[in-house]
Each structure stands twice: as C-alpha cells, then as structure tokens.
Amino acid sequence: MRLVDGNLYFKKISKNNEQYNYLNENINCDILIIGAGVSGAITAYYMAEEGYNVVVVDKNIVGYGSTSANIGIIDVQLGMELSKLTKIIGEKKTKKCINLMIDSIDELKKIVSKLGNKNSINFKRTNSVYYTDKYMNKNAIVKEYNTKINAGIGAKFLNESNIIDLKYGIELEDASATMNIYEFTKEIISYISKKENVRVYEHTEAYEIKSKEDYVDVITNNKFKIKANKVIITEGAEVIKYFPEIPIELYKTYNIVTEPIDSLKNYYTNFTARNTDVPFNYMRFTEDDRIIFGGQMTRITAKENNDVIAKQLSNSRYRKLFKTLQETFFGLKDINVKCCFSGVFAETKDSLPIIDEIIGMPNVYCNLSYGINGILFSVVGAKMLKEINKEYYARDMHMFGLKR
Ligand SMILES: Cc1cc2nc3c(=O)[nH]c(=O)nc-3n(C[C@H](O)[C@H](O)[C@H](O)COP(=O)(O)OP(=O)(O)OC[C@H]3O[C@@H](n4cnc5c(N)ncnc54)[C@H](O)[C@@H]3O)c2cc1C
After folding, report:
1. Which residues pair with 337 in a beta bridge?
2. pLDDT of residue 387
3. 123 assigned to some structural domain
C-alpha cells in the first residue's frame, strides 16, 4: 500500500537527515516498538524516559509513512461532533477524552523543549475554530456549542471572520497548536537514539511476532530475533496488513500548501480550523505566511491500486480542493500553490484511538492513533502504555480497547 503521494512539503524542507543501521544480530530488550512514525517516536520517547531498555524498528526510514504527509494540526476538537460522541460513549467519558487531549498539547510542548532544531519544529499554540459557511447549518453549530458549554469547555460563538467564509462557528481558546510533525518525529528519534538505553534500526521489518506467556520473540526480515518483555505496535494504517481483524477503515486525504501570501499579515491567523462539511476541510497557517488546506477525504477503494487511475483521481481532487480553498479565503488575491500531496490514514467508528493488548497475543500491545486527532491520541496512548512493564494498566485505557 502506498501511504503517501505527491510533493511532500515537510519532507522537502526537513533539515534532519540522520540515518540508522539495520539490525544484524539477535538482541534482547524490555520494550520493542514496531514502527517509527510519529506514534512510534512518541511512544519510544516515554518508554526511554522511564528508563526501559528500548528498541525501535522501522521497515523503512523514520517518518517515511503517513507521518511524512502529516500537516501538523494538533486540535482538541474531535473528528466527530462532541454531541455525537457523547451519544456513543456518554458524557463522562467524552469529558475525560477532551481533558486527556488538552493535557497532551502541554506534553507535546514539553517534549519539544528537550529536542534540537526547535526552529524547524515550530511548535505554536493557537485557537481552534469549528465553523460552517452555510446559513442553514446554524442549528448544528448551536447544538455543538451548547454541548461544549455543558461539558465545561469554554467556547466562544462566532458569526463572522475577516479571513474565512464563516457564517457561524465556535472558537476554543488555546485548544490547538501547529508544528512540523515530520521534523518532530525525526528529532525525537535522534534525541532518544543518543541515550544508552535506546537502540534504533531502520530497514528492519518485524516479520513474525511469536507471543509467549512471559515474553515475545519477534523475527525480522533478515531472520534475526528480538526477544522483548513487551512489544508495542505503532504501525499506523499498515497494521491492517499484519492484523486484518483490527476494526479500522482506510481513507485518503488531500492537502495543498500555498506559496507565502504577503497579505496574510493583515489578518488574524492565530487559529486552526475545520468546517462542518462531510467530508470536512481543515486548515492552518505557517510562520512564513502560507496556508495549508486539506480535505476531499475518500474511502480507499481497489481503484487506488491502479497508479494511472489513482493519479487522475488525485489531480481532480487537488483541483476541487484548490477551488474550495479560493472560496474559503475569498478576500485573498493571488493564491499560488507550492505543493500538493496526499496520504492514507485509518479511522475507527468513534474516531478514538486503539490502545490495548492485542487479543490472543499476551505482551503485545498497540498504540494506534488515527484521524484528525492522531497526534494527541498518540501522546495519550504512550503515557498509558508506560505502565505495562510494571504489569499495571492505566485507569482509562478501557475507553480505547479493541473491543469497546
Ligand atoms: C495527509 C495526512 C495528514 C494528517 N494530518 C494530521 C494532523 O494534522 N494532525 C493529526 O493529529 N493527525 C494527522 N493525520 C493522522 C495521523 O496522525 C497521521 O497519519 C500520523 O502521522 C500517523 O502516524 P503513525 O506513526 O501512526 O503512522 P506512520 O507514520 O504510517 O508510521 C508507521 C510506521 O510503521 C512502519 N511499519 C509498518 N509495519 C512495520 C513492520 N511490520 N515492521 C517495522 N516497521 C513497520 C512503517 O514503515 C511506518 O514508518 C494525518 C494523516 C494524513 C494521511
């Protein structure tokens, strides 16, 4: 499965070219992390800080999966309306999820403070906007606003914006952030790989996982064995290839990065936003006055396996996306496109992550965080999984179980 396609902006501007050897011997460790995308990097960070003997393997190169297309919106507002999630999991658990995500923004800031290349990572706290450009959607926005207020989330009702075509919206103060996730992932791996208790291997595929009562043997593509007390799978969307029974569906989403727009300086841009459309559009701004605009999300079909058809589909989706971008930022002239790229991500039915021990595989866990809140939930999962080597389950892990 091709996870990303097109002209990947964040990979293009990256300054970190560090490389890691492949595994060429049998080894032992406390915790083996399979997959070095942003979820694997964050999980490995927390495990390394706990002092465990950690091994990270990636079958490819650090950050080259969906992470290389991640556009770095760190938003507390869920992919699903709060009112809908409340109906599925109840008010108490919904509130818990929001609080876990709010704490995770602060956690990300703390992690960034320890890393090199902070200027390239560019962590910036912003407001979060959820909006509609249609008068007829007023009721949906009012309903969501009331659910947020009832859940104790301080929200401001909007009925105008000087930059986007907004009829009604909700703004949450400091409930979002932006950063360069590809660089962040590379920098975390680079930071932990210098610690004595961490080893990182690229071009090392976990080929077979043999789960035992007290430990796990993982066989790599080169037939070496990693014996680990616990294994954490952070394979992203590709997990479906290795564990087809995982309850997720695959989607593709499309993104445009514009050239710097001088006139953006005259507008209020300290926010990230997404609209109520199905499928929705999302947007953020960069430090050098670009707009990053995404959407046109579609379920992956067999057609995507045909390169020619996939390219035609992509081109028509980029065109539609650009038209929506122009309509959204109707007051801005001379918007030129710098890069277009797409990426595959997975989604669960309730938009929440899967953080659990794999059924029938003792000592094998997963931290699978998908969709629009993927990064924040990766932090939530990593913090919960920190306890597993002490044979202790974090209190709230049941909310994200495989069979919830
Ligand atoms: C275009 C796009 C934009 C997104 N933007 C955002 C955003 O702004 N904010 C947000 O919160 N979320 C976003 N997401 C969702 C999600 O957070 C990202 O997809 C995230 O980068 C996924 O990270 P990951 O580490 O789970 O997966 P990946 O980055 O795909 O990493 C998995 C890694 O596992 C490796 N691997 C797989 N199988 C094996 C194996 N058997 N052995 C060894 N290695 C293996 C792969 O090589 C890969 O490097 C976006 C997703 C897409 C597609």
Report:
1. 258
2. 86
3. no
**Ligand 1 contact, 98 CB (< 6 A):** no
Decide if 213 is inside a domain.
yes
The rounded distance, in Å, linking the Cα atoms of 113 and 106 is 11
Total count of domains within the chain? 1
How many CB atoms are closer than 10 A to CB 81? 19
If 0-12 CB within 10 Å is exposed, 13-18 middle and 19+ buried, where does residue 102 land?
middle
Quick one: which of 354, 349, 351, 352 has its CA closest to 385? 354
Question: The domain containing residue 232 runs over which residues?
Answer: 4-70+182-240+351-400
Which residues of the chain register pLDDT less than 70? none
CA distance 299 to 80: 16
CATH for 14: 3.50.50.60
Number of CB atoms found within 10 A of residue 312's CB: 12
The model carries a pTM of 0.97
First-to-last CA distance in the chain? 28
- DSSP annotation of 286 reads -
Kindly state whether residue 66 falls inside one of the protein's structural domains.
Answer: yes
72 lines ligand 1 (CB under 6 A): yes
Whether 248 maps to a domain, the answer reads no
Strands (E), 8-120: 27-34, 54-57
42 lines ligand 1 (CB under 6 A): no
Tell me what pLDDT residue 116 has: 86
* 213-233 pLDDT tens trace: 999 999 999 999 999 999 999
CA 15–ligand 1 middle distance (angstroms): 20
